[in-house]
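Honest question from a wet-lab person: if I give you the sequences of every part of a complex, can you actually get the arrangement of the whole thing, not just the pieces? Trying it with mine:
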Amino acid sequence: MMKLKKNIKLGKLNYYSLIILGLLFISPFVANAQKNKDKIDRTKKINDYSFDEKLENIANDTESEDVTYDTFLENIYDYFNNPININKADQIEFQNLGLLSLQQINSLLSYRRLVGGFSSLYELQAVPGISQSKAIELAPFFRIYAPEGGKLPPIGRLLFKGKHQLLLRYQQVLEEADGYKKDSLGNSTYLGNSSKLYLRYRYTKGTQISYGLTAEKDQGEEFFTGSQKQGFDFYSGHFYARNIGPFKHIAIGDFEIHFGQGLVAWNGLGSRKGSYVLDVVKQGYKVKQYTSVNESNFFRGAAVTLGQDQIQVTAFGSYKAVDANAIFNTPADSLEADIEEDGNVGSADIETISSLQATGFHRTDSEIADKHSIQQFHGGGNINYRNRFLSIGLNGIYTRLSESLLSTTNQVYSKFVFQGDRLWNASLDYKVLANKFTFFGELAYSSNGGYAFLNGMLADLDKRLQMVILHRDYSKDYQSLNANAFAESSNLARNEKGLYWGFVLSPLPKLSVNAYVDVYKFSWLSYLVDAPSSGTDYLAEINFEPKRRFNIYLRLKHEKKLRNATDNVTVSDYVLPILRSSARLNFSYSFNNGVRLQSRVEASRFDNSTSPVEIGYLVFQDISYTFPVFPLTLKSRFALFDTPSYNSRIFAYESDVLYAFSIPAYFDQGIRTYLFAKYEVNRRLSLWFRFAQTFKSDQQFQGSNNDQIEGRKKSEIKAMMRFKF
Amino acid sequence: MNPLYKAFSHNVLFNSSRIIAFILLLTLQLQIKAGNDNRNLGAQSAAMGSTGVSSSSVFSSFSNAGALGGLETMAFSVYAENRFLQSSLSLYSLAGALPTKSGNFGLGVYYFGDANFNEKSVSLAYGRKLFTGLYMGASFDMISYSFKDYGSSFSPTFSIGILSSPTDKLNIGVNVHNPIRLNVGDDEFDRIPTIINLGLSYMPTEKIHLAFEVEKNINFKPQFKMGLEYHIVEMLYLRGGVSTNPTLSSFGLGFKFSMVEIDLANSFHPQLGYSPHITLSFSK
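Yes, you can. This is the full assembly:
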């Protein structure tokens, strides 16, 4: 009897065990199936998600040809390829993604705590503050399931078994500019040829390890000859690791520092005023790898972050050669000076430098003479305390130049600009999360006695209304060499006081209004403004999305600033208002089968109170097609523009090859077209090609000085290859 | 000096003031848009402020070959325009459209001017529906300019047009005429103007058609146009419109019988006066 009972008991146990064992066996398959489903969903999303469109949204109100978004793009590519575990990531990781505002992150974390974790990415839209379209946009960057194996793989696997990538890009303007023309002796102003070359190798293992090498040759620079015996003009290398051993971050080689709100040290893209009106708060990791080709906006040395979740300490040191315009001991010395093989001047003969050069061009004899003429040392650090509601940091940076910076122009407006050979900056930065409000700011001080304060508040007033207020008070004598702060004029956080107020209103499901007003004043003179002055900026963008993938927006901008009157004959210049306005109407619509059309009409107005008012226009049509089976994407544009001069120029974002950016200014009268193709040969190899041409019907020349091209056309080709292995 | 004149300079004797005056008059005409750079022909279009790129009609062979793809029946139209009541500025046009299973074909000709100066053009257009919501087409145009006693030029060019319907009430049309800036004559500086028309048609109800358009001719500032058509009763359409640069207001009527349609339009320029337009159409 008992045996039977035992048997039965065992039997029951066996029966249940069998079920449990069965479930245990099946669950990995179920999980796999779910993972496969996730993979399938992601593949669909890869086809749906358009990096180009996202980039276009971010960049389409840029009003400068020099801003590049390659680090932003690379960052989101990294996360696209290595999605964040939505249930395990912390605040800082969400911040580093760059696609969520502080309020949205706060909301997401509260939701996660409330429900105990996300069980599906569809839940993203249930998070207050994240709309359905935002959730669809974010989904490819997150995952629910952790990758196999929770332990850290051995160091060999980390360092070599990840993904390798090789990029090569070639760019060429087809017409010959004046700087390349040879004179009777066979010499030209630009020593090199007009092609631009870019080569890059990068290794990544998830978002944990990254190392690589970048090399770039600008147009006009020599290549493996003359002044560039080492080949390319610019080389950059980096090694970066996160959460390895005792290090939260470690960077060796070239890296970026992001402290606070950018008042003491921030490399890379700053926060600008634009249609993403709430995007004025800086966030993310304090130390990041440097992979861009800006030849000055980075540190070279080493940086580490140590600590645990609540308290972290970052320290960095950097020592690199920088370009500077040198002044010699006596004029004669510059002739006798030790000219080294590569055309540089021996540093022993330099007495002072008059300016630091940041363009990175080394094409002409004088640019080559300035190359790497001085050394720059930086040392600094940050101590940060963080908990769920609060983040407070202390930042410091010390800069030392090997020669003194001494201005030779003695202009009144540069009276308070940094001069000398050493400088330090210190600041306190904070972020406070209180329910629907986020307070942020930084209070900074520079060693000459200047101050810079930035304080602001983000508020989720209602489901349909988000707001940001940002106040800045930068003293006229705040000095810094590495700041990159929110400002109207210089990003170096000086000589400006202003109040910025932005809001996003969504009165109806398909309609949203983004707007900002910025009122500011400069208490001291600036370049081309011979008096203290003030200004106002307004922007309103009304977005209407009648259905998915069909977007209409109207963007209105108005700017008023003061500037010296042109051509005035009085003893001292007086200032007059300059008004700049623009209105843009844009339609963009995508069909399900890969066709996308975009149409735009834009008008600009420029009034400098003396010359006649200028009104400029731009009309264009874009068409792009992604083939459904064959891996080819084609994009093209046909634009007609007509502006009286460069003053009433209109900027428009253009599709370009990977990591290259084209946001040219359209001015004068003419036609601009471009044709772009991306061909994914296989999983490893992708090719890009672009041809762009501007034709001006009312001009005989394009460009100016050494870059002037005779004729009415300017054409450029770009070709790029990416090899993954 | 009028760029068109330079095209024939190798044929020209300079020494007549009458010629110079005539040329100056032409220049004046071009500045006030009495020359024919207008791609939107037809009295329907003229009544609606000269919009037309975002609707399908027989004259889409000129205005938007893509929109030609939206026609469903065979049609033939005759059009006459007497600009500013000047016989030397009149325009006559014939156009026909033939829908077939593999796309729609259109053929159109127009003659503008008089014996002293005239512009003639023939356009052969093909447009088809690519998929629901998108029509695309192209037209091959031959344009000829003639000056009495001096000769004529004969230039081929082409246009590309797209008509898309993002929603069922909204059409967006684009047409680019002469995108590659083909020359008239030998001189590099004399080119047939490149013109882009970008327009929108909105039909909130079946009876109301609102059109907005911007036209940018490479040589001139953009023209902004707006037109409204109201299908008041079965056989009658009321139309009105306005355009800028120069400022013109227009109005018109359309009578539609079973296979015949008659459209009348009149546009008004503050200094130069009225221009009547008439179109007679036959469709199956």
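Two things worth pointing out. The CA atoms of residues 161 and 205 of chain A lie 7 Å apart. Residues 1-13, 25-48 of chain A have pLDDT under 50 and may be disordered.
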